[in-house]
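Run folding on both entries below.
>entry_1
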Amino acid sequence: MTTLKTWAEAVIDTLQREFPAAMHHTSSSTDDCTVRPRELHPSFYGCFDWHSSVHMQYSGVLLNTMLGSESPASLAALLDDRLSPQALTVEYNYLVEHPGYEMPYGRAWLLQLASIRPSEAMDKLVELTAQHCHDWLGSLNQPVRHGMHSNTAFNLFLILEAAERLGLDSLTDSVRDAAVRLFGDDRDYPLEWELSGHDFLSNGLSEALLMSRVLPDFPQWFDGFLPHRAEALDFLTDIPEVLDPTDGRLAHLYGLALTRAWMIVELAEYFGGSALPRAEALVASARPQLVDGHFMSTHWLITYALRYQLAVE
C-alpha cells in the first residue's frame, strides 16, 4: 500500500503541474491562438500533454479504488473537478471541432478512462470517440509498426479492451476485424529490427498481445509469428539504457522497460518459466524514475508500472 500511496501522490502532483505543456493544438486563424492548457482542456491538462493527463487520471481512478480509505482525499477531489460535467463538456466540444485530435493514442486512453469512471458527460465523449475510431479504422489500410504513440497494434488493444468493458459491440467487432486484416498473416517477426531510439513500446509484443485477445487459435499464430521464443525473450528482457533522462524522447526507453514487462507477464504462459523474474528485472530498472525522476518520466510512467502490477496480481 505504501508504494501505491506514493504513486497516488505523484499522480496528484503531475496533474496539478500545468507547465511545461505540449497541447498540440493546431490553430486555424489568428482568433484561435488561446493555448493556455487549463483553458483549452479543463479536464485534461497537466502531465505535459493531453494523452498523458488522460491516462494518469485513469491511473488515479484505479489507485483511488485500490487504496480505498488510505487514498489521499485530494486525489478524489481532483478527479471530481477534472471529470465534472462542465469540464468534460468543454472537452467534448473541442473534439467535435477537432475529430482527429489525439487519434488514436489519447482517444484510446480516453475510452480506457471512461470504462472505469463512467458518467453521463463521459458517455457523450465515448459515443463521439467511438465514431472517430470507426472513421480511423475505415481509413487504415496499413499498420503503423514503430514503438511510439501511433503504434496500431497497441492502440487496437487499448480500444478493444475498453470497448468490451463499455459494451460497444460495433466498435469491438470493427477492431477485431481490423486486427485480423492487418496482422493475421504475419509470420517470422523480425525482432532484431527493434528497438528504435525513441520507443516506449515493443511492436512485436504489442501485436502479440492484441492477437491473444482476438484469435481463438492464438498459440498456433504465435508459433509462426515468433518461433524462436527463448532468443526472443533474451532480446526483450535486455534493459534499455537511457543516456539523457531529461530528453523526453530518450526517456521513452524507461517506458519501454515497463511495457515490455507488462506484456511479457500477459503472455507469460507462451514464454516459459523464466519470463516473470526477467520481467520484474525490467521494472526494477525503471522504478527509480516513477516518482523521483525527471518530469519527462514522472508525468506518464506510473500508468505502465500500474498495468504491470495489475497483470502480476
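>entry_2
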Amino acid sequence: MSGDKAEDEESAVGEEGEAVVAAVEAVAERIETERDRLTDLDSAIGDADHGGNMARGWAEAAGAARDLGDPDPETVAKTVGKTLMSEVGGASGPLFGGSLVFSAAELDGGLTKESAVAFAETYLEKVEERGDARIGDATMVDALTPAVHTFKKSIEVDDLPPLDALAKAVDAAERGVAFTVPIRARKGRASYLGWRSVGHQDPGATSTLFILEELLAVAADRLDREVPDVDATSPTIPDDAEAEDESPEGSK
C-alpha cells in the first residue's frame, strides 16, 4: 500500500507540474497577443520596450518549461524565473523573474492552498524589495498587492475554494491597475516625468494582470469549471452584526 500511495503522490505532483507548464504557455501566448498594447503603455512613460521584452522572455520561458519533461511545480516555477531573468531586459527581468525564483521554493511538495498563499506572499515581498516600491508608487505593486492580500483573505478567512479565491484576486488586480492611472509615478522611468505621469496606466501592473488572468483561465480549465463570477469587494462571510442577527439568540 505504501508503494501505491507513493505512486499516487508522484502522479499528482506530475499533474500539477503539467498544469503549471500549461499556465506558462498560456501566459506566453497572452503576452505576445498584448505586446503592442504593453508597448503603447510603456511608450507614454518609459522606454517602449516592456511589450517586446516580456513577449520574448515569456516565449523563452514557455519553451524552457516544455523541455523539462515531467517536472514538479517548484522546478517549473524556478526554471521560468531563471529564464525571465536572463531573457527579459530592463528592470522587468529581476522583478518578474528573480522574484519567481525565490518564491518557487514555497511550492516544494506540490500545489496546496497553503503553498499557493505562501508563494504569492513571497513573490510580493521579493517584488517590493527588488523594486523598492510600495502601494501608491504607480508600479506593478499596485496590482500585485491587492491581488495577494485578497487571495490570502479569501483562502484563510473566508475559506473559499482556491478557484474562487483566485478569481477575486484577479478582480482586485484589475482595480489596482486602474488605480495607477490617476496617481503620480514615484518609481521607475515614469517617475522622471513627475506630474506628467498622471493619467497613464502602468505597463508592469497591466502585464501582471494579464498573467493573473491566464493563471485563472488555466485553473478553471483544469478543474473543468467556469471562471467564477465574483468581485474583490463582495462579502463572502457575514460580519459580527449579521451573524448575531441570524443566530437563534438574535432571532428571539
